[in-house]
Amino acid sequence: MPKINQQLIAKELDLSRATVSRCFTNHPGINPETRAKVFELASRLGYKHMEMRQSRNGHKRGTLHYGVLICSDLEEYNKTDYESPGQPLLEGISEYTQLHKIDVSIEIVPPEANNLDEPPYSDLKGLANRNWNGVLLLYPFPKSVVSGIMQRMPCVSLVEQYGTSPLNCVDVDHYKGIAMVINRLVELGHERIGFFSRSYVPQASWALRRYSAYVEKMTQLGLEISNDSVINVHPKHSVSLEEGFEVAAEQVSKGVTAWVCAADHVAYDLIAELKKRDIRVPRDVSVTGFDGIKQPSRAPTLSTVRIPFREIGFTSAKRLHDMVRKRFSPPQHILLGCELISGKTIGRPLE
User: Fold this and answer.
1) Do 9 and 91 belong to one domain?
2) What pLDDT score was predicted for residue 45?
3) pLDDT tens, 130-154?
4) Quick check: is 347 in a domain?
């Protein structure tokens, strides 16, 4: 197994060794996209940058150091089936921290770890020894972990809210996005509109918020919501992904003409599985997503909602910076706007 060092990172990303080194020292000539890619690969490989960065007068160059924690199974995180929202989120974080000369450590932690006293959290020196000035959270975390981190240092969550927790969060306006999708479907003549998701561990509150927005908008328009056409939302009624596809196909045969999916990757999987069952999109049923990730090869152009992930990353880093600098204010849930993208996966329902 090759030694994990900056030369390996440079080789994997087709960059020079000097470019990689400059990423770790906040060099102003490195663009945020490159820096984010280097940090992300370093975290996946388990590379630790231990060099103490010193200025010419001998003082430590970076006065602030943020931890960025990504809650994901490593195998799942490394999948290349679909574009990960994590990359543009990291680009936004990188852009802000580079502008303000803030050091960043990125760590991937598995979802099954539920307590800060157990590995891998206890192995994070920045967290365990409180050497970090603050933490940014990417993806859903167990609530016990979030609560423990908040007791130790300032913390901001990206695209994930935790109910009544006084956690600062930067997110997208889920209701606005879902409302735009449903309005467009109704304009085309759809009335039987279902909601399709998959089970996540930990439970993804962003999926629940999109479902809540679906319920609110459907109710507002006076459209019927059938329990049979709501798939994998309630944890007690969740089914496997394969079973979910079967239920979706069955509901199409019973009159559902459109599926609002909780995320783009869910929508792309649903479209592929419906095709295997001779159900064509959009001729037989319309399908929408939510995220605006890059279109996979050979997949249709998805009708979806584009989230400003990079702006969310930038705004989250700024919010954390304000908290670290003791600019006190009540916990904030900052909701950014989104954009409806018209694709080729929706059309008028069959007569």
Assistant:
1) no
2) 67
3) 999 999 999 889 889 999 999 899 9
4) no
Tokens of 49: 């940058």
| Residue ranges making up the domain that contains 251 | 174-307
**Sites in the chain below the pLDDT cut of 50:** 50-60
Whether 56 is covered by a domain: the verdict is yes
Residue 23 to residue 18: CA distance in whole angstroms: 9
Looking only at Cα atoms, what is the longest distance across the chain?
Answer: 77
Q: 232 and 269 in one domain?
A: yes
Check whether residue 143 and residue 217 sit in a common domain. no
Phi and psi at residue 151, in whole multiples of 5°?
-75, -20
* Model confidence pTM above 0.85: no
Cα distance between residue 124 and residue 128, in whole Å = 6
**Is residue 342 in a domain?**
no
Note the pLDDT tens digit of each residue in 93-125: 999 999 999 999 999 999 999 999 999 999 999
The helix/strand/coil state of 96 is helix
| Same domain assignment for residues 88 and 164 | yes
Structure tokens at 176: 């606005």
Nearest-5° angle of CA 205, CA 207, CA 212? 90
Number of domains in the chain: 3
Alpha helices per DSSP H over the chain: 6-13, 17-24, 32-45, 74-77, 86-99, 125-128, 143-152, 174-187, 205-220, 241-253, 264-276, 309-324
